[in-house]
Amino acid sequence: MSKHFLEIKKGNFVASEKNKVNDVNLIIEKQGQIISLLGPSGIGKTTILRTLAGLQKLNSGKIFLKGKLIASNEIHIEPEKRNIALSFQDNALFPNYKVIDNINFGKKRSNGNGFSLDTKEIIQLLHIDPILNKFPHQISAGEAQRVSIARSLMSKPDLLLLDEPFSNIDQSLKEEIQVSVKKLLKRINLTTIIVTHDSYEAFSMADKCGIILNQELKQYDLPYNVHHEPNSVEVANFLNKGIFIDVKVVDSECAVHRLKHEELGEIRGKLSNNFPSGSKVKLLLQPEDLIHDDQSKLKLEVVDRKFRGTNFVYTLKTNKGEHLPVFVHSHHIHQHEKSEKFGIKTPIYIDHLVCF
Predict the structure, then answer these.
(1) pTM to 2 decimals?
(2) Are 306 and 312 in contact (CB under 8 A)?
(3) What is the mean pLDDT of residues 6-31?
(4) Taking CA 196 as the corner, what is the angle to CA 190 and CA 200, rounded to the nearest 5 degrees?
(5) What domains does the chain contain, in order, with CATH numbers?
(6) How many whole angstroms separate alpha carbon 134 and alpha carbon 349?
(7) Above 70 in pLDDT, residue 113?
(8) In contact, 12 and 22? CB cutoff 8 Å
(9) Residue 218 burial by CB count (10 A; 0-12/13-18/19+): exposed, middle or buried?
(10) What is the end-to-end Cα distance of the chain in Å, rounded?
(11) How many CB atoms neighbour CB 348 within 10 A?
C-alpha cells in the first residue's frame, strides 16, 4: 500500500540487455503533477512507460497507482484495467480510421475520470482541425503525434504517458503546443509522465525531472535543482550546460564560501557540497555564471561566438587552455570578434558553487 499517487519501489525495467533501467525509486506525490524522464535515446525511458502501461511485465520491484499495487513479481494488472493512456512516439494510430475516428476511439475507451474535456477544444488546441477527415497515411509525423495525444486525452486516464510527444512537430508550432498542453494538463489535474531527450522540454513542462543515465535513475528533483545543482559529474556532462575548471577551496566555513582560480581570481558563492578549506576541486561553470564587463581588468581571449537569438554564447580561452562559455544578451551594443579580449566582471559571484 502506498499513500502517494504513483510510487515505484526498486523497479527493474528490462526490454533487452542494453535497454533496461535498474533499481528505480520514484514517487509522484499528488494527482496532477507532471514528471519528465530525461536521458539519451535507447536508454530505457520508453521501457519504463510500456511497463507502467502494462504492455510488458515489471522485471522486479513494485508499482503502486492510487494506492493499488498494479505490478510486482507476482502481480500484473492487464493494461485495459489500469486506466493509463500511452501516446507512442510513432503514434500507433489505427490506419483504417480517419483522424476524427481515431480521436473518438479514445472517447469510447474513457473510464470516466472526473475531469471534463471537450473534443472541439482538444482539436483546436492541437491544431488538427484541417486533417480530421484524413487517414493516418495522409498526414505528417508531427500531425500524427498530435492526433495520438488527442486520442489519449479523450480516454480520460488516471495517468497519461507521453513518449517524445513533440519530437516531430515543427519548431514554429512546438513551443505553442507545449504551453497549451501544459495549461490543459494542469487545468484538468491530469497526472502525466513525459519521456524526452530534450532538456529544455523536460525543464519547461515538468514539476519534477528524472535523469536516466547508464541504466540508472541518477537524479530526481525540481528542474531548477537538476539544472543548477546536478548531483554528479555524469549528470552535469549529460546536460552539457558548462565546463569544469580546477579551483581551490579558500574558505568553506563562513556564510559566503570562497574559491580561488589561478586566472579568474576569487569566486564567491554557496558550496552545494561540503569541502574543507584547502581542497582542490572541480567547479562547474555554466554560461550564465560569468558576467560580461567591458571595463573589467580581467580579460580573456574570444575563441568562438554563437548567435542563439536572444543571446550570444561566447567561448573564452584561459592561459591554461580552459574554454569558458558566457551568455551575453543579443542587444549588447559591443559585439566581440574572435581573438579580441573580453572582460569578465570581478569578483565573480555564483549562487550555486557546484563542485566535485
Answers:
(1) 0.90
(2) yes
(3) 93
(4) 95
(5) 6-235 (3.40.50.300), 242-353 (2.40.50.140)
(6) 57
(7) no
(8) yes
(9) middle
(10) 38
(11) 19
